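To whoever is on call:

I kicked off a structure prediction for a single chain this morning and the downstream step that reads the tokens threw a length-mismatch warning. I double-checked the sequence; it's 704 residues and nothing unusual in it as far as I can see. Pasting both halves so you can look.
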Amino acid sequence: MPIWKGVIMKSLVLAEKPSVARELARVLGCRQTHKSYLEGDQYIVTWALGHLIELKMPEHYDNKYKTWNLEDLPIIPPKMGLQVIKQTNHQYRAIESLMKRKDIKECIIATDAGREGELVARWILEKANWNKPIKRLWISSQTDRAIKDGFRNLKPGKEFDNLYHSAVCRAEADWLIGLNITRALTTKYKDPLSAGRVQTPTLAMVMEREAQIQKFTPKEYWTIKADIGPFTADWEKNNEKRIFDKEAAEKIVGNLQGAKAVIEKIDRKKKSEPQPLPYDLTELQRDANKRFGFSAKKTLSTLQRLYEQYKIVTYPRTDSRYLTSDMESTMLDRLQGMSSGYKEEIRPLIANKGKVLGKRVFNNEKVTDHHAIIPTEERLVLSDLDNDERKLYDMIARRFLTLFLPAYEYETIQTVFKAEGETFKAIETVIINPGFKQILGKEDAPLEKQSMQKLSQGQSFNIKEPSLQQKWTEPPTRYSEADILGQMEKFGLGTPATRAEIIERLVETEVVERKNGRFHPTKKGQQLIELVNDELTSPELTAKWEKELELISKGKADPKAFSKKIRKQTEQLVSEVKISDKSYRAHNLTGSKCPECDSFLKERNTKDGKILVCSNLECSYRRRKDPKLSNRRCPQCHKKMELHEGKAGVYFQCRRCNIVEKAEEKKKAVNKREERKLVHKYTQKEDFGTSLGDLLKQALNKED
């Protein structure tokens, strides 16, 4: 144990969240519990609450920026400053105090092992003027074994300097472009219009798809099917099954009546489909959306619980679908850990000593910061998981188990028939070995009668019941969440960790809306994409920036050159907005006037219902359009009661029975934990005024 001048020296471990800190402290033997940290003989474990430090806002550079003016733009500080986030200032001060302790010899960064996690910790260290050694805990799962191995193999902090520089460049680029263009559009067109480095090109993709749908003109066409002996075959010519001429289609059907079809060709092909690779985050989000309708945000939050709380899956925010070669020796332990929930599936795999048959999964060159998402060796207790957690874990588990099974082998038999000069084709699939598909439950049903296997060229059959089907060409469908994630990944928009957040931002700013699992542009979104700079709508530009950020993280690009380029780009984009002669009309203006400034009110949709806000950006008036429904039930009709606020305070009212109850009657039932939940729920970034969360915080602070 290191001792300096008679003092036992300790390591300060900085985690990203309290829940992770508690687990680290337990494994490290830190049993002394304090309000802001846990202490042991060798370690002191403390935590952030996500970001504790942020980039300074414009008004911190100059008071005049408190008022949004187009003439003041662009705002480009020569050096970006940092500030402590007000709401979590107490935790930062606690960490700062620990850093000043004389018995602290080093800081071990134990935040999430990725770009954003690095930024969380480094900004705290920078703000606190930390000048002692830095080490890095870099692990891909939260199991006790992984934590112990990680602390035995701590990495020097310098190895992650480039990752930090990349994170700073990303944060500053988002601040410079997002803040300046948002202020420019908002002040020029006098309506909250949000734009950003990633969200704007993502919106542009939704709009482009909408334009394709609106321009689409349906066309009528016909297809022909015919029963040829025991088979059903499709008419085809030059690989096209559609006929756009009705008379021609009817003529073909007429000629086929009572005709014979002769086998011209039989094409047999044996094929093999390899085991699918495990999931990365984006692919998991896409599949969860297709199968269960999960939003990207829901998948990520559920996955985070499986990782942090239950420790049964590896690090979620990964863009790799491969594993490192040294992980092959851990496969049997992982199978044993999950065997309680998959006894029948895993028994033969354990008997085979956990031998991986899908060897292509082991590829060191294709693993970046983190490997694919797979189960850990932690013992699985399925009964601990809720329905959503179980669904997501099952997807990860079954995809993982495919690695231990053979490839899927099958034979396709395509038979080509000729009749009256026309070509018909029938295809049959014969399973040779179901392989990995048996564990996914997706193997094709075996044919009761594998009839095409016995066919030979030249055989003839009578044609029965040739039929004509009328159809119409269909427009492309609007994007689902899975589609948007796929497009974002294709164009390099955002990272696996940020894509869900970007999609939610588009919904929150009311430029798109979800309808039946598809994204529809709003009138506001349609206007915004016309107003915003053409360059900012381009996925190619943002993808280029993301690639540069990745190169910076690997030490292959200059962060100063990137920052210089972003500053120049910001000036150009703001200038374009200023000189633009385009016009805008708020789509949600009502006929009602603001009681404070007499401007028209606008109607906005929020998670808690419709609200009315003043269209005057300098006025903060806002009120609910409709009363909010509470969870309080009417004692007479048992319907949910409305929540109102009057001179006498908050009260509940049943619209049907007109029964009124004061809210204070329930106050004693709300404990501190519930209060904190309320604060968290209602602390959201809003376009106008003070958030309900801030008001709750003020009230709670007064009570404390």
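Update from on-call: the warning came from a stale cache, not from the record. Cleared it. Sanity check on the structure: Residues 650 and 663 are 6 Å apart (CA to CA).
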